[in-house]
Specification:
349 residues, Fic-like fold, Arc Repressor Mutant, subunit A, 2 domains
């Protein structure tokens, strides 16, 4: 019987409390139905934006928003197909998760995997990996921690034990702790022939949605995987020998807590800025500048060409807007020429 090894440290408990408080503030905020829909779609777009970055595709937040609205993402390789498939898996999760009988099991894992492989691999390749199946490492950065010593029977047993533990720990262990354990152990087992990493990310989205962390708190979980991917891998590699998951669970909860607290502050700031804008201009900023300041609270940096595309303006107008924000010390600039990036003054790269 699988039993994870970890400690409920003070650090973990503090971050869990911070997360729950920030989440509750977001949920209790006074939104109208239109704003809720906008925020939910924005979270989906941020998910796609960060997944694109995770697999090496240059995608602007504006194009990610168009993809959420149904426009296909087109690249000259399978990555565009995977991004479109991930968008479809998110829609499947949000349409299915309200059905109480749907829970983490092998059928759900295989179904999500099949959705992700559509128009890229053969449908029969959505299966539990046998001893002769090599792991498809395409666009998967997590394979370095896979336990390659597991044979088919051991892999199936480990997967079954993990799912049984997850179901039996309901109401006993905090959902974020359970989810963190699932992420790490599935990455070690790598049960599928193709697309383990993206399937696990989709399952994380499902588990958080199942526990009402996405529908009302609008948490873009892929952002946390993308921003902390190297850091997460470093922690996972150190766990292989000790198998003590405390450090990983602490990091997973900390990342979500920090991201959710930043989202809470952004939502409150947005509301305050909107109220201020109805009374007087905010530092004489135009609507485009206010909009990019909100984006930069979610996305680390923006290039001038991104701003041009987002706002549908000329290069010179974009230059004037951004330089004005730099002069007012609201954003900072780094790099030169086409590599120039802009980021919030309060954010450190």
């Amino acid at each position: 019987m699988y039993q994870p090894k970890y400690i409920l440290s003070d650090k973990l408990l503090i971050n869990l409390i911070d997360f729950e408080l920030a989440k509750k503030t977001i949920e209790d905020f006074d939104y109208d139905s239109s704003t809720k829909k906008t925020m939910a779609n924005k979270a989906k777009a941020i998910n796609l934006f960060h997944l694109a970055h995770l697999i090496g595709v240059e995608l602007t937040i504006k194009d990610a928003q168009k993809a959420v609205d149904g426009k296909k993402i087109i690249t000259n390789d399978p990555r565009g197909t995977l991004l479109n498939n991930f968008r479809n898996s998110m829609e499947f999760i949000r349409s299915t998760v309200t059905e109480n009988y749907v829970d983490l099991d092998i059928n759900l894992i295989l179904h999500i995997n099949k959705l992700l492989l559509t128009d890229w691999k053969e449908q029969w390749e959505a299966k539990i990996r046998t001893d002769v199946d090599p792991i498809d490492t395409t666009l998967d950065t997590w394979t370095k921690i896979v336990n390659k010593e597991l044979n088919l029977a051991q892999r199936e047993d480990a997967l079954g034990d993990l799912i049984h533990w997850y179901k039996s720990s309901v109401n006993k262990i905090h959902p974020l702790i359970r989810t963190a354990i699932i992420v790490y152990e599935l990455s070690r087992i790598a049960p599928l022939a193709c697309c383990n990493q993206m399937t696990i990310i989709s399952l994380t989205d499902f588990l958080l949605q199942k526990h009402n962390y996405l529908e009302r708190a609008f948490i873009p979980i892929v952002r946390e995987f993308d921003l902390h991917n190297s850091e997460n891998l470093g922690i996972w590699e150190t766990l292989i020998e000790s198998n003590d998951l405390t450090a990983w669970i602490e990091r997973f909860v900390l990342n979500l807590s920090k991201g959710t607290c930043e989202d809470r502050d952004r939502i409150i700031n947005d509301a305050q800025m909107q109220k201020t804008a109805t009374k007087q201009p905010f530092l004489d900023l135009n609507r485009r500048q206010l909009k990019i300041l909100r984006y930069l609270q979610t996305i680390p940096t923006v290039k001038r060409e991104d701003y041009v595309q987002m706002m549908d303006i000329s290069t010179m107008t974009a230059f004037r807007d951004l330089i004005d924000l730099v002069k007012k010390k609201l954003i900072k600039v780094e790099g030169q020429g086409r590599g120039t990036k802009y980021f919030l003054s309060s954010r450190y790269l």
